[in-house]
Each structure stands twice: as structure tokens, then as C-alpha cells.
Amino acid sequence: MNAKRLIWLTSVACCWSAAASAQDLQNRPVAPPPPQANPAPAPADQQVVDFTADQLEYFNETDTVVASGDVRMFREGNRLRAAKVTWNRKTGEVRAEGNVAVANPQGDVAYGDSVQLTDTLRDGVVQNLLIVLQSGGRLAADKGARSGDVYTLDNAAYTACSVVDSSGCPKEPSWKITAVKVVYDTKRQRVFYKGARLHLFGLPTLPLPLLSNPTGNQGGSGVLVPDIKFSRVNGLEFVLPYYFQIAPNRDLTLTPHIYSDVLPAIEAQYRALTSTGAYQISGMITDSRKQPATINPGTTSDRSLRGYLDASGRFQLDPNWDISGSIRLTTDRTFLRRYDISRDDRLRSTIRVQRIGDDSYFSVTGWATQTLRINDSQGQQPIAVPEVDYRRRFNDPLLGGRVEVQLNTLAIGRTDGQDTQRAFASFRWDLRRLTPWGQEVTFTAFGRGDVYHSDENALSPTVLYRGNPGWQSRAIGALAVDIRWPLIGSVGDSGTQRITPRLQFVATPPIRNLAIPNEDARAIELEDSNLFALNRFPGYDRFEDGARVTYGVDYGLALPGITVDANIGQSYRLSRRPEIFPNGVGLSGRLSDIVGRTTVRFRDFVSVTHRYRIDKDSFALRRNEIDATIGSRQTYVLLGYLKLNRDIDTSIEDLRDREELRAGGRVQIGRYWSAFGSAIIDLTDKKEDPLSTADGFQPIRHRIGIAYTDDCLDLGLTWRRDYQNTGDARKGNTFLLRLSFKNLGR
């Protein structure tokens, strides 16, 4: 016997072995006949049964038709296929035998060894029944009967999983539900079970009394799959969502959370889809003890109602106009973290109306912020009521180029802080030209006029941001020329490289910056993304003045499977006017620090990006940031490192130094199994940030888990540990077991 024949026989034996253990849900050897292409019209007063067969016999005495050899019958959209069919025309009974397949107009297919039907080809009794649903699930039973729109099955099983492996051999489904009795309502597209039990990987597990599940794409009301979690703070947690389908476009999910160590909580989510958009409203409420939001809260606590509200929506009123908004509120600063809902340290509620045209933009936006940070005053949080922004672009009919005008107004109030109002109008003109030698030259002219009003400036904790109280105004003007010269050449036989020197001149007259309140231009730092920006401040409230020249080079290399993109640059201030940048951001001297970015990619397997800022005097790394992705989609490692060594005055809270390490990854340990993990470590010490509580190596959080994922089942076990206390959100371990079934729940 040769090797190929031995391998073939072995694979066939494996298939037969698998089939023997899972015959009830396996595919059958025949398929139903396809629908008739052009069925003959029936007389108005008669019901016609069309059929074909290899051999046909008629017995006049009993008025019986016996068809054999690939028999196919059609009536009113119902289709039947079998090896032999006996049709008693007097009683209307149709008995089909031998690899029977019956399909209804909805696309569901019933298979059986022996089928007894009425001549409607719909109602009847089937032995060794298999129903393959049009939606993808399947039902199998020792015996089944159909009457009208309802199947009744005895000793049945249901699964939505594949029953064959990648080689086409039968396999046990990842999960199935067995029951003493099953009722499948084709009109309601729902399966009801009596005496049900869940089987995972062929092993019986949980009993499921009074279970039902939808089979179509519309879903239906019912209990969803539970979650089980254990945490140090709340103890064992059992989550059992119940889903209400109010209408095809509206639903409600109520989720009780039962804890072993604290009182239960109730969570709800309402979702709706309208003709113009969609919205959702969710929230959670409980009664529990809370402690002050400090790192070491002590033992004092008080009991109160606690919860959160989260709502969002967007509506497209017409092709140009839309309205969107969100509400995010919580009763206290530790609730979201304690109940493992979110780790955001600020919650922002917004409302926006905007119009987007081909060359115009208009928006009215309002927002409010709730802080969850330790020792952060809620009274200092801004409330915008509102911001109005209008922009218009058009071609310059005189000199060519592109013109953009902008009108903007903003009012910010605080319950216990500085209030600021702002309005400005700006104009920007850009003209791009190519020289005969291939240089790309862009000319820019910019002008803006601002009016500000502020009061209670002394309540702003950072003096640099206050500005002068009362009414203030300023004018801004800037001229710039930006020159790029792309040089492209070949590398070897199949590679190319691109070298693009870049030079920029910017001139701006002196501007009244420090007299103006600073609300949106605080987090300033020189980096590769803003090196050539007209204004290197991030917002509108500060504008860089003086004259400067900026120079740098972009580099690109493309080889088979390898790409490199890099840039590096620096700027020099031509004017001697005192700068307004804080020391340490890279722009505080006439000569700036050196900034750059390098990205290296090897096929789809490796991607490494390095961003840096080098001190112009000591060549020390003031910013060192590395992000790396290594591996395939199934197995990969994510690494991130950031160190900000800027030595900025600690009173400027937006620019504090820090150092951290992030790592994550996933390892595929089988076709369906994988292990995953992630960690965040704070490497900041007192030398880098005197206000930091870290000691140079302080883990913040890590997560390790194992997961199983196939075509119909997600199973995961996760261990997470938090290393920081914040009020009653205590550090400790959390374990989460999660199941997700296709066509059975979430």
C-alpha cells in the first residue's frame, strides 16, 4: 500500500469516527431541489403538485402514485426531494423515504430518513429529523412533527455552530443545547425548550429551564448570557441581562448585578434607531458606602445612592445639517472605577449642531466637564455656553491660491474660577507653486483680530494662564514661505528613496499674548507634528510672534518588504524679543531643540515608531517615545515607552514630566485558543516629578487571560490586578469569566 493511499484511508477513518459521535446534527448527503424557475400557473380552483422522477407508477385501484429515483415535488413554494415517494391521492398522504429533504418558502430545510406529509408538502411527521435554518442554525431530533408554522421535536438538539472542520470532516459543535422537547415557531422565528441543558465541547454543563432563543436576524426578548466576575472590593459578581425587543428599531436591556459583599445594582440601556439617526441612554444605580477620593482614604465612609448616566446620539437632519450630543455624569469620583465601568478621569457632556458643506463649515457647540481626578476642583472645570465656529474656503480670483475665513466665539464659565469670553475673525491665504527645478513653494498670509473679556482671574491657579481682567484686544499677522525640494532616486534594482529638504520662513509682529487669558493653548511642546506649523501653540489663545527660520529633512526608503519614513528638524528665532514659551518645551531659546520621528516597517510583521526631542545644548533626550508592534494578527507584541524629561516648573500642571512603560500581546496557542496580557508601569520618580507618588517602578495595572474563539463561541478567563487605591476603588485582583454565544445571547 502506497503512502498516499494510507493517508487517504486514515483521513476517511477520522471523518467516519467524528461522524459517529455527532450524527444527529451532521449534514445529510442530499440537498433539496432548487426552486422552480418558471412554475406552471395553476387553475384558480385547483392546487397543483409538480414533480419529476426517474420512474413513475400509478395504481388505479388505490389511486396511488409511486415515484422513485431522485424524486422532486413542488407545491406553493414548498419543495421535497427523496429516493422514493408514495402519494395517495385519495387521502392526500405523501410518504417519502430515503435521504429525504424538504424546504419551505422561508429557506429552512428539514432532512429525515422517513417523512410522512400531507400533499401540501408542509405538515407531517419526520423520523431522524434535521432542520437547517436559513439563518445558519440547525435542529436535530429523533422524531419531529410539523403543523402549520410550528415544528414539535422530541429528544432534540440545537446549535448555531459549524459541524464540520476545515478538512470537511464532521466534528462536535463547540456548543449545543439538548432538550426533551423543542418547539420551533417559524413565524415567530423562535425556539422554545423543555428540559434543556447546555453542552460545551461535547460535555453537559448547565441546566437551562424555560429557555428560548431567536433564530432570525431580528432577535427577540429574553435572557442573555450571564457574566461572572470576582473582585476584592465587591466580591463575587453575577450579571444576568434581560433583553426586551420593544420594536424592530427599539430595545431595552435590564441588567441586575448581584454581589456577595455589597448590595446589588441595576443597570439599564435603551437604544433607538430613527429615520434620521440613533441614540442610546444607559445608566446604573446602587446603594453603597463610599470613601473620599484620596490615595489613602482611611476607614471613614458614608452610605448613599450612587450611579452614573451615559447618553449619546446623532441625527442627520439633511445632507448638510446634523445634531449630536452626549451626557456623561456620575454621583462621585470613584463609582465608575469601583464598579469597573470606566477608568476615565474626566467626563465630558456635549451638544453640537453643525453644517458641513463642500467649502464651508458651521457649528454651535456647548460642553461641560466633570472631573474625577484626586484633589482636582470641580469649580475650576470649564463650561462652554457655547462655542460658535464658521469657516469658508474659496479660490482667490486675483493672485490665485486658496482663501479661508473664520469667525469664532467662545464663552467659558466656571462655578469657582475664572470666566472668559472670546471672539475673533481670521483670514488665511495659501498659494502653492512648483518651480521648473521641482521645488514646491507655498506662500501664506494670515491675519486675525481678537476681542477677550475675563473676570475673577485671580481664581485661576496658574498665573501664566490668567491674563489681564476686563476687556482686552489684539491683532495678529503672519507671513510665511515654505519650500520643499523632493529628490527621488533608486536604491539597488528594486528600491527607491526620497530625500526632501524643507525650509520655512515665518515673520510675525509683536503680539499681546500675556495680556490674554489662556484657555486652550496650554499643553505646548515642540515635536515633529508642529515643527513647521504657522503657530506652534495648540489652540487660539496664544500665537507665536517674532521671525524664525525652520529647517529639516524628510526621508523615505522603500525596499521589497521594508519601508522607512523619517524626519528631523530644528528652528532658529531671528528676533531677540523675549519668548513666551515656558522653559523646557523646546522653544524657550533662540535656537530650538531638535525633533524628529522615524518609522520602520517590515512587511506586516514589524512596525516601530520612534519620536524624540534632543536638547540643543546638552543633547540630552527631552522626549523619548517608542511604539512597536511585532507579529501577525494572531500572535503579536505591543510595546510602548514614553519619557518626558523637560524640567518644567511644577506649578504648570499641564506640562509635568513622566515616564511609563506599556506592554501588551497575544499568543495563538492553537487554532482557536490564545493567551493575552497587558501591563502599564509608572517609571516616574521624584527626580523627574517632585509631585509624583511613584517610586521609579510602580505598576498601575496588568491583565492576563486566556481565550477561545471560533465561528460561534467566545470563551475567556481574565485576571486583572490594580495597584492603586482611590477612595473605595481599592487595589487588588479581579477575575472575569465571559461566554458569548452566536444566536443565543450576547
TrEMBL record:
Subcellular location: Cell outer membrane
Domain of life: Bacteria
Keyword rRNA-binding set for record: no
Domain LptD C-terminal span(s) in chain numbering: 306-673
Gene3D superfamilies, per the entry: Lipopolysaccharide (LPS) transport protein A like domain
Main localization, broad class: membrane
Keywords: Cell outer membrane, Membrane, Signal
Signal peptide: 1-22
Listed InterPro entries: LipoPS_assembly_LptD, LptD, LptD_C
Known function: Involved in the assembly of lipopolysaccharide (LPS) at the surface of the outer membrane.
Quaternary context: Component of the lipopolysaccharide transport and assembly complex.
Family classification: Belongs to the LptD family.
Protein name as catalogued: LPS-assembly protein LptD
Lineage: Bacteria, Pseudomonadati, Pseudomonadota, Alphaproteobacteria, Sphingomonadales
Gene encoding the protein: lptD
